Amino acid sequence: MALVNTDLCQHVKVGAYPFRLQLCLDEHLGLTDGLVTCRDCNKAYLLEMLDWRGDERLFRVSLPDAEEATQLVRDLTRGSCDISRACAEIHHMQTSIPASRYLIIIDQNFSLSGPTIVGIAPKPADRPLPTASWRELDCNGQWLDYARSYVAMLNG
Ligand SMILES: [Zn+2]
Hints:
The protein is α+β, with helices and mostly antiparallel strands. The protein has one domain (19-155). The chain is 26% helix and 32% strand. It has helices at residues 66-77, 83-96, 142-155; strands spanning 19-27, 31-38, 44-53, 56-62, 99-107, 116-122. The protein has a six-stranded antiparallel beta sheet with strand order 1-2-3-4-5-6, covered by helices on one side. Strand 1 (19-27) and strand 2 (31-38) form a beta hairpin. Helix 1 (66-77) packs antiparallel against helix 2 (83-96). The chain binds zinc ion. Zinc ion (ZN) binds next to loops.
């Protein structure tokens, strides 16, 4: 069954890594939360890590419009913006922009060619997705397994 992506652009697919980092909001041995754009079509995505195990990271995805994304990057990189205002802006963006219907699994691939998308799974309908930062979540691989089971179901 083909995955019809109405919210992710066509460049976001398994085996690729079209993201260019515009703004890192948090990191731990690589990106955990950040604003990225597609190298090919410039569509903006807010990625927030939900779970990880080894090199694999599961991200929830939000879809800011290009203008919102540009404005945020401009405000936060200008340096005149103080930290509390920056946090407020990021929080506003996280709570006001539409969420993608998909979760993305990225393999960080430290030893090889760099990060690669290894799975795109629809968000679970039967349990609510955590909205907290990864720093407040268990990150024990549970959500990763859950997303993987969806990917397996779609491909199998
Ligand atoms: Zn694209």
